[in-house]
Model the fold of this input.
Amino acid sequence: MVGRTIPALAVIAVGALFLAACQPTVDVSRASTTVRTGLALAPPDTPVLPLGRDGRPIRPSAIEGSKVFLKAQCIVCHGPEGLGNGPAAANLKSPGKDLLTDFLLLIGIRAKGEQLPSHPANFHNVVQMRLNSPFSMYETVTRGRPHTAMPSFGPRPAYGAATFGVRLTDEERWHVIFFEWAFSTTPAEVARGKQIYETRAMDVGGRMLTCAACHGADGDGRGHEGLALSAKLWNWARGQGPGIFTDVNLMAQRKPSELFQAVMDGHGEMPSYRGKLTDDEVWAVVNYVWTFVYQYPAK
Done:
């Protein structure tokens, strides 16, 4: 056995050397020096939110969302205040549809799966909301939550999701999820976050700076220090990416807990504010910066 293995390994080694020797070469001696100027930037990402008449992503409104909340009869399950205590909440059950029931239906057997109790979300549950993102809530409203009583309000329900008979437009779905999002904070907390963001100066590398000094009064990264960062960070130069709170594509897919962690521990050019701000103060700032993305009722 050993006698056969050694020649086989030798053949493989020679073959590998032969293939390596046959690799093409590239002459770069006459390459243009313009390659040093860098590549063209990629085109902007396709907007997650629908476009308005001005060609820009819409700004969701919690005020408009309250109207959609009533239109879609969300109040029946989630309650008027989003506490998950609507009149139908106690009796909700899953549709009883699964792979087995669908397989049996193919051979002409109608069966019903187990209908498990289903509890509607409580949007005042800050732990739940801080671990959520607007886009994940949008997906739930659009496609429903499979094997629960949460129905789809979009054109294509997810497999195993219930339907309700009410269809919402893309824009209406974004409005209503930010109406629900607003339940996780209060006007007083948002006002406190605004005050800290705009006026609380803290030591950053030996300089006393507010959040607005870099991120801008409007959250667009155009503060007096933010302009200097734009020369160092390509995404800030484009008005996109982490730290640009008006980048709706990014913010729609971020969780409040991620922003909290970034403020506490810092990242890249972002300094750490651990020990400079309390947990409650950081959460107030986080809830305030979300209002750069959507119209909060009190703003």
The first strand starts at residue 151 and ends at 152. Strands lie at 151-152, 162-163, 202-204, 207-209. Confidence is low (pLDDT under 50) at residues 31-38. The chain has two domains: 62-184, 187-292.
